[in-house]
Amino acid sequence: MCPPPAVTCDENNHVAVVWRNLTVYKPMDLLDGFLVKSMSHKCRKAILRNISGVFRFHDLSAIMGPSGAGKTTLLQCLFGTWSGRYKGKIYRNPLANKASFITQKEEDHLFPCLSVIESIFYASRLKGAQNESKVVEELIDQLDLRNCRHTLVHSCSGGQRKRLVIAQELASEVKPKILFIDEPTSGLDSNVSFTVLTQLQKLCMAHGMAIIATIHQPSYKILKLFDQLYVLSRAGRCLYQGRPEVLRSYLSQFQVNCPNGHNPADVIIDAAEMLKVRLLEESSAKLIEFEMDSIDTSSMSEVEAMRENRNHLSLRHMMYLLRRSFLHGTCREPLWLFIRVGLHVFVALLLSMLYDGNIGVDNGCLRVNSAGYYYRPNCTEQVPLSRLREESNIDRNISYLFFNLLFLMFAALMPTVLTFPSEIKIFMNEHRNGWYSTASYYMAKTLTEFWIQLILPYLYSLFTYWTTSQIGLNSFIDAIPFTAGSSRFNNFVSISILASYIAQGVGFFIGAIFTTNFNISIFVATVIMLFNFLFSGFFVRSNSMGRAQFITYLSFIRFAFEAILLTIYGQNRCHPSEPGSLSGSRLTNNSAISSETTSDSEYNNVISVVMFKFELNDKDYSTHFTALALHLILWRLITFFILYFKVNPDINLRAPNLSCLSCLSPRKIFSAKCCLYFSTLVIVISLAFIIFSVYYLITE
């Protein structure tokens, strides 16, 4: 154990964070969690082993050590976001109730198409600054960003981006009292690293904050900028804590020479493996007496209790998140929008060339005589070639309608899967630092994507509906949505838009789960969509699936596809006054249609062949629309809960176990664990409701 120097009671208010006898264990994956659920702490791999320490306000402190020593792990534990198990206590000064964590990758904090001043401005508004202009200008001067204030982030240098991330976290009237920074010099040369750390040193003095940074192996010039060093061995034990200027004399006590002109940081890092046993064995008895009894932790708060985002759904946060997202995603990054628009235009034009402009004219109606059989004037009658073409056109039209759904869903799914994970990383960092709530972000994100998934499917559907001569679109008035025009076209567009929203929701779901693995997210998205297409009823009719038919109730594409067929070929299209384009077509005797099996879809001996093939009824439209709406709500809710539990610091293995019955207590009902129980219950009930309600409505 390597405790810090003793602290007097008068200095207790200067202590920012204290940890005692901290042992941190490697997080277990899901399989390990089942296999070693009852495993003792001794059997689990420890990253940090029984370490203690203290950091103070007004100090620029460094956590040093070789790769794999646990520097970032210690930083996450002190901040309160470590998701694994640990033993020991971590306390923070109540004055430091505001703290921020900056990760190693600045791209996880910055939108590349915003300018420097815009990034700081939106950060100040989201963090509740009243006089944002003053805050922004002060930070630009303090962090030497004036020369690049109007430069887009992707054009800034590495040092400028590092300082911009720091400026964002300080963009409020009430500055965070502790700033945790993971590798602030990563990827920077020595001169830029010196500039960044000099700015951090000035911030410590100007705002009285504690800045704690991890650093691998600094130069001696950079080492002297730090007020405190905390050195870890590769085994996760403390080798040294104290001021940099004392490090040389400390090493000499253990016969580790550091000649003048040599960097003591290099010496202690190179000797870490050699020292990890000998140094601890020789100095443990001496260091144990320096336990931190002089620090009064009774007035301090445990880190776990403090790491809570207390923001709630806020219209102000939603407004600024909407503005920022629109500015970044649409105005500053038009290429992505142009590609999406161009793809819809290209596919629409391609379909107009591939498919005959009259494939939507044929109604697919069949005249049935009073005996309940299809009308055949003469069994030996030759079938005109035109009638065979009409029958072929109906099959082609069904294929066209199915491809429309396929394209619209993939056009909504893939952009979301490609872009959402990178944005989630920014959201997680901002939420963790207390900028806004999960609900505010998710509502703003949903509204941001709402308009493009409304306009593009509508224009695409309008063009393809018109070029294939589908029924009901006779004038410009009919194309105006939700007017007294064509109800068929309105229903067609509504289903198309709803299907694209569901596919987008699936993309949000996949992106929220596989935030860091792009390849897996693409694979899972493809598998989910292929599953839905397989059970859509297009390749294999639902009534031919046997025992697997119930799986089709989970396929939202089935409900969308059948709703489209009901829109085009249902709604009394086969009226007795219509002669029926297939009224004289020859079919085999085995395909004769009984009136007893088609009474729901025939009107005075005229039935729809399409509705008969797919076993559809006009009353099914409302059922299918309801099922699609339930799918939309369910996918969005699941994504919200995934995001909520990803960023909620109380959902981890350290939180106390709560039984379901204990969640009935008014004092615990809103705890994170209880929210997990309730949300899981809601998801399970929703899935069951979709399956059984749709099954009941269809069977009725």
Q: Total number of helical segments?
A: 21
The span between the termini is 72 Å
- The share of residues in extended strands comes to 5-15%
Flag low-confidence runs.
3-11, 30-42, 375-383, 576-604, 649-661, 666-672
> Would you count the extended β strands for me?
12
Q: Radius of gyration, rounded?
A: 33 Å
Q: Let me know the average pLDDT.
A: 78
Structural class: alpha/beta
Number of domains: 2
> Biggest β-sheet: count, sense, barrel?
6 strands, mixed
The amount of helix comes to 40-55%
Name the overall outline. elongated
Strand order of the largest sheet: 5-6-7-3-8-9
Oligomeric state of the chains in view: single chain
Family: Belongs to the ABC transporter superfamily. ABCG family. Eye pigment precursor importer (TC 3.A.1.204) subfamily.
Transmembrane segments: 335-355, 398-418, 450-468, 489-514, 520-539, 551-569, 621-645, 674-698
Domain ABC transporter: 28-259
Protein name: ABC transporter domain-containing protein
